[in-house]
Amino acid sequence: xxxxxxxxxxxxxxxFFLLLVVIFxxxxxxxxxxxxxxxxxxxxxKQQAVRVMGGAPSRRISGVSADSAYVYKASxxxxxxxxxGIGADGTITSVSHGQ
Length: 99
Fold this sequence. Notes:
Number of strands: 4
Distance between the termini: 51 Å
CATH topology: Beta-lactamase Inhibitory Protein, Chain:B, domain 1
CATH class: Alpha Beta
Strand content: 15-25%
Structural class: alpha+beta
């Protein structure tokens, strides 16, 4: 009986750990993106901003004009995604930190 309790306790601990991994798997890249977004400055070249952010965006949005935006995933607790506004000349025109 004691061995059964230990086994069930081990299974429960592993299940709890896996649950935490699933929950925080989405949180970690979003926090990294949010931190990196504060390093991006208006007027910075698009290529430099992408390097600062750590890679290509998860989505690109083309506007009606020549402007576009790069969208990066934010943490699940954020109210919005992280956006880098890009002007027609290829420089950053705005940064939304996804708060």
